[in-house]
Structure formats: C-alpha cells, structure tokens
C-alpha cells in the first residue's frame, strides 16, 4: 500500500463521489414508461450491453434511443426517454468545488468516469446553471470520460491509459470510487483504491490539512 505521505495524484470518480446521483429516479422514470424488468436492467450486474456500448462511445444518441424504444411497450417520444435517462442526475454540490479548489495546490487531480453523450451534456448544463462553469478543466490535470476513451471501468485498460498518458507512478496515485469492483480494478494495476462508503461524503476522506485519512 502506498505511503500516504508520498501521494501526489488523486483520481476521482464523478457520479456519487463528486456529483450527486439517484439511480432510483431513472429506474422509476422508465417504470412509468412501461419498461419491464426495470430493476434488473439497471442493476450493477444486469446492465444491458446497450448501456455498456453507449458508455464506451461505440454508439451515439440515435442508436441508443432506438435501442431503448425496443424496450418500451407502446409509444414513447425520444425526449421522454432522454428525460428518464437523465433523471438520476441531481447536482454538483458546492462542497465538491471547495474540495477541488483546496486540493489543487497540493495534488495533481484527475477524473476517471463512466459516462455517455446524454449524461455528459446534461452534467455540463447542470454545472453551468449552478455554478456558471463551462466544464471542469480548471480543476483537473486530466479528464478521462469513458465515451471519449472507448473504455469503461472496471476494465484495467482504462486505468492503465490514465497512468501511461499522464506518466503517473501508480504507487503515488490514489483512486476514489463508490463501487468496490472499480476500486479493486484500480488496485489490480497498482493504484491505491479508496472506496467511498454508503452515506459518506468525499470530504470525509481528508483531514483539516487535506491529507487522506485512509
């Protein structure tokens, strides 16, 4: 395990860790559209290949919407599907911005996130509406979004790409995520993984001197 005092790089997941999500809102939204076995489709283990391909950028919005239409009995507009898909996206709390601002002088910060064209667009709308931000470039040295990279967590190649492209030493790097399988995959390539437990806030992981507590 890397020495906490030698950590130079912090890699953050986006959803749940920095940006508030509520997956159940999307599950419920698709339920109202008549999607059967919605709980299975949106579970960690049952996620459709359609979703995986969308997150890797292998298909674009029209193909995704066409695939979703096949899951919905009766008629549903493209906009109703988009609204249901985006329902989980809540807000980017000021506490996340404050933390990133405080950490920037002390660490190299990176973002490694599974996302897709629709969530990416809506996320940027939200941070613009809430904070007047056009993006997160000012906070991070590198932004790695799955739909741009053609890779997604927990694929080890996604973590290796970050390490190789930015020339990072994995023993000087930590990765923070809310899913155990993603944390484990980071550790498999030598990065120290930190699981953000249920009910925790990312700010709970740092002491008053901005050093990691775990």
Give an overview of the whole structure:
The chain folds into two domains: 4-20 and 90-205, Rossmann fold (3-Layer(aba) Sandwich), CATH 3.40.50.1000; 23-86, DNA polymerase, domain 1 (Orthogonal Bundle), CATH 1.10.150.240. It is 41% helix and 13% strand. The chain has ten helices and seven strands. The protein has helices at residues 23-32, 38-41, 49-55, 61-69, 78-86, 94-103, 117-131, 146-149, 156-166, 180-188, and strands at residues 9-12, 20-21, 89-91, 108-113, 142-145, 173-177, 192-195. The strands form two sheets. The protein has a five-stranded parallel sheet. Helix 1 runs antiparallel to helix 5 (78-86). The chain is globular, with a radius of gyration of 18 Å. The mean pLDDT is 92.
Biggest sheet features: 5 strands, parallel
Radius of gyration (CA) equals: 18 Å
Given this structure, which CATH class of the largest domain is correct?
A: Alpha Beta
Please tally the β strands and state the result: 7
By oligomeric state, this entry counts as single chain
- Residue share in β-strands: 5-15%
What is the typical, i.e. mean, pLDDT?
92
CATH topology of the largest domain, by name, is Rossmann fold
How are helices and strands ordered from N to C? EEHHHHHEHEHEHHEHE
Give me the CATH superfamily of the largest domain: HAD superfamily/HAD-like
Global morphology: globular
The percentage helix is: 40-55%
Label the structural class.
Answer: alpha/beta
CATH A-level architecture of the largest domain: 3-Layer(aba) Sandwich
Distance between the termini: 11 Å
Ranges with pLDDT <50 over ≥5 residues?
Answer: none
Number of helical regions: 10
**Which strands sit side by side, in order, in the main sheet?**
5-4-1-6-7
Our count of domains comes out at 2
């Amino acid at each position: 395990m890397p020495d906490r005092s030698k950590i130079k790089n912090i890699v953050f997941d986006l959803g749940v860790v920095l940006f508030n999500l509520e997956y159940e809102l999307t599950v419920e939204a698709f339920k109202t559209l008549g999607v059967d076995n919605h709980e299975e489709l949106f579970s960690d283990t049952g996620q459709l290949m359609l979703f995986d391909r969308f997150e890797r950028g292998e298909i674009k919005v029209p193909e995704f919407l066409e695939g979703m239409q096949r899951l919905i009995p009766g008629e549903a507009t493209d906009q109703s599907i988009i609204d249901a898909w985006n329902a989980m996206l809540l807000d980017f709390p000021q506490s996340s911005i404050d933390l990133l601002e405080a950490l920037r002088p002390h660490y190299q910060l990176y973002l490694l996130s599974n996302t897709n064209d629709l969530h990416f667009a809506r996320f940027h709308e939200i941070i613009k509406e809430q904070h007047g931000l056009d993006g997160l470039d000012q906070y991070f040295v590198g932004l790695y979004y799955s739909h741009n990279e053609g890779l997604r967590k927990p694929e080890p190649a996604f973590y290796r790409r970050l390490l190789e492209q930015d020339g990072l030493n994995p023993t000087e790097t930590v990765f923070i995520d809310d899913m155990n399988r993603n944390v484990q995959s980071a550790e498999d390539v030598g990065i120290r993984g930190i699981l953000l437990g249920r009910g925790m806030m990312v700010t709970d992981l740092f002491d008053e001197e901005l050093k990691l507590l775990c």
